Amino acid sequence: MLIKIVLLICFFAIMVLVGIYARKHATNVGDFVLGGRSVGPWLTAFAYGTSYFSAVVFVGYAGQFGWKHGISAIWIGLGNAFIGSLLAWKIMGSRTRIMSQHLKSTTMPDFFGSRYDSKSIRVVASAIAFVFLVPYTASVYNGLSRLFEMAFNVPYWVCVIGMAALTGIYVILGGYMATAINDFIQGIIMIVGIIAVIASVLSRNGGFMAAIQQLAQIESDIPVSLGQPGAFTSFFGPDPVNLLGVVILTSLGTWGLPQMIHKFYTIKDQKSVKTGTIISTVFAVIISGGCYFLGGFARLYDSLAIRNADGSVIYDAIIPFMLSSFPDILIGVVVVLVLSASMSTLSSLVLTSSSTLTLDFIKGTIVKDLSEKKQLLIMRFLIVVFIVLSVVLALNPPAFIAQLMGISWGALAGSFLAPFLYGLYWKGVTKAGVWAGFMTGVGITVSNMFVKFIASPINAGALAMVLGLIVVPIVSILTPKIDSKKLDSIFSCYKD
Predict the structure, then answer these.
(1) Confidence (pTM)
(2) What digits encode the pLDDT tens for the residues 77-100?
(3) What residues are paired with 313 via a beta bridge?
């Protein structure tokens, strides 16, 4: 216990010290939100990766989808690396950096407002971002707190409040630069931690081949492959269709998430984008691939400890139970690993939500003339508000971690992915097309919460993204175009 406590104290101290150090980089709105648009490739790539992967992935997704799909769950990790990181950086990184600077936009809703010449689109986009980032944040707390209960026997509510307070301190102090520096430190911890955990799990099961042989003997209880031996070690697993839905949601989803795209706004130059692409992809292969590879062996740890009284599996308890027999030093490393992943994601979420609400909703809409000093003050206040809201939801979560994240990602990426991606490349996107994209994303996700026409919110979110990519161009072709002179001015940034 002493080892675990010492590791935590050191970790917390570093995070706060970084926040204090970064205060000098948070004296105006541009610095607080964007780090002065001068962040290098290593900090940006690690900020992207650590915002991507949190306790939601390590505890919630790795446990649930490792249990359901076995070793084939690693396809999710590879999708995250090559679609969610490599392609996202290749297709969106450079053009986002250039156009966002040209339009002087600081957030995704701000980009929408300038790109489509519509204040109402900007305001509604900011409302969507704020509302649906809350359940995602709650899912981050939930996954981390289950691990803390296992390691320290600390009540769930204490974990939630402690993590929220610490994250709030360093984000309020140092803004984006504090999160970027801490993300780099946390990313290194995550790499070391995941490698140590995988090595330990395989070692405890007699090595890789022995673990695979044990897993191959388990018959599938998945309806579409019921009774099939070796299903959990097969190439596409026992349920390829639902596996594809998870790959789409968790990989393509990053292309439309405000807190992820925001990283491209901050990177300093084109050379940094190219370097960051490589770093981000390698990071994702190690972290996401490692998490799902680890989760693939979940069924080797079947126990009453991970089941309810009726025999149903508590997916969020699988990974903590898997790690519970580790030596204290390794448990301490794992706790710091998941804490690093979660706090980096949480800091990105609260900064995105507070800046969006301040700059895109309050400024110019509620308060016409808002000085820079007041904007900073409001953003810091809203960071507290957002954290409190997410804590309240986390203390009484309505669903498993994966379901909470699926709802959030489905609504956000379903609404924003198509209007943002097409907006970078195609002059033909219309205001009506953007509204159709918003209605598709929010409509499918929210209606499915009540009607349940798609059993899995994960698949509902994936459907919202894919339909958005179809609906936006169709509606845009059929509706009035934006003034050509304005479009020429917007796209002139790519000719320089």
Answers:
(1) 0.89
(2) 999 999 999 999 999 999 999 999
(3) 307
